[in-house]
Amino acid sequence: MTFAHHCIFLVILAFLELLNVASGSTQACLPMGPRKNGMNINFYQYTLMDSSTYSNAAYMAYQYANEAKLGSVGGQTTISINYDIPCVSDFGTFSCPQEDSSDEWGFMCNNEFCSNSQASAYWSSDLFGFYTTPTNVTVEMTGYFLPPQTGSYTFRFATVDDSAILSVGGNVAFECCAQEQPPITSTDFTINGIKPWQGSLPDNIGGTVYMYAGYYYPLKVVYSNAVSWGTLPISVELPDGTTVSDDFEGYVYSFDDDLSQSNCTIPDPSIHTTSTITTTTEPWTGTFTSTSTEMTTITDTNGQLTDETVIVIRTPTTASTITTTTEPWTGTFTSTSTEMTTVTGTNGQPTDETVIVIRTPTTASTITTTTEPWTGTFTSTSTEMTTVTGTNGQPTDETVIVIRTPTSEGLISTTTEPWTGTFTSTSTEMITVTGTNGQPTDETVIVIRTPTSEGLISTTTEPWTGTFTSTSTEMTTVTGTNGQPTDETVIVAKA
């Protein structure tokens, strides 16, 4: 191509890019489902060494999907393609960049002879981690591009090997909320990188799209490789001059299809305004229902400011917000008072509550009488004050009248004991016992001690070998009939 022809080509290319900007507003989307990071990648079969099919615009737009689908992967943000075929040398197999290869004396790479052919199909996982034949395959990438700024975005293919297209917009890439549906038939490509029959493409071809921040724009890239190396570096220049190359993290997303969402498509974002109408019900202390309209601005799910109309319906609180409670008290009359408090009503709202409190005197049962025994000789009466918990669960002052009465005559007892003396002895002892009322009581015990009986002198006759009668006296201790140990005098006669 001569220099003059090259200049003419560049002028035409620039004019085509200008047409892309001036051809009307690009259709955007506002999908409402959960957002997923990255683009979806589908792989389709392509015949090795077929250098004509990928030159057909209809094939690159939608007919590729008629071929066998090999599989798919999702969540891809690095979307550029750079595949190198292997070189099988005497020193091992290694990846051979195209710029390091030559075919003057056969297939060579880095001055090493490669025994394999450039025209063969090779399997690898070099394309987005999917195991296929990058040497001969068609790849479809779909996702939503989310522009961070409003303005012109220029997408570019630095080089194309073999053929590729890029489309932006809901009416050319895929329909809004229908990313996973079969491809649409539009051939209105943002970048037309279709390799001409037996021709080649210039480097750094591109297309410009005016986009509005916060809207999602359908983005589709279709790439075909017929043999050997595969190359498709992708970049975009933002309105502020920033260039994003290869890795589109934070710019491309995916949504599950939702064909029932009626407001997903935004034909012209430049004139699109979003507004919502919501209704809320609030309780209030008035006696009638009040309806009012308020205007506010919110940030919607796609980060856009949206006018919201809020219809507020205020309804009176129910009669249950007036309650009556009865409490005991120590006064002698009934007291009524009104208190204000805030409670959470059945509608979950804080509600002012009027509480009427009726306080009534405590009952007569708060005066009790109790009788206790004591060691005095007269009856004693006293009054004590104490606090108890009444039947209503409230602490109550209680008056206790205590009557203390003398203990009975049974607390003076007489007991008789034997003793070895020769006369009767009487004594008085004081002890403490537990009375029949369970109280400790002083008891007076009169002890009468009497001499043991005459039976405590006894005579016994024993035989012996002597020639005369012998009489002797012995002292011993026995247990008497009263159970007491008693000294006994025994007169022993031996004959």
From TrEMBL:
Pfam families: Flocculin (PF00624), PA14 (PF07691)
Record carries keyword Signal: yes
Signal sequence, start to end: 1-24
Record's keyword terms, sorted: Signal
Chain segments annotated as transmembrane: none
Stated family: Belongs to the flocculin family.
Name of the protein this chain belongs to: Flocculin
Lineage: Eukaryota, Fungi, Dikarya, Ascomycota, Saccharomycotina
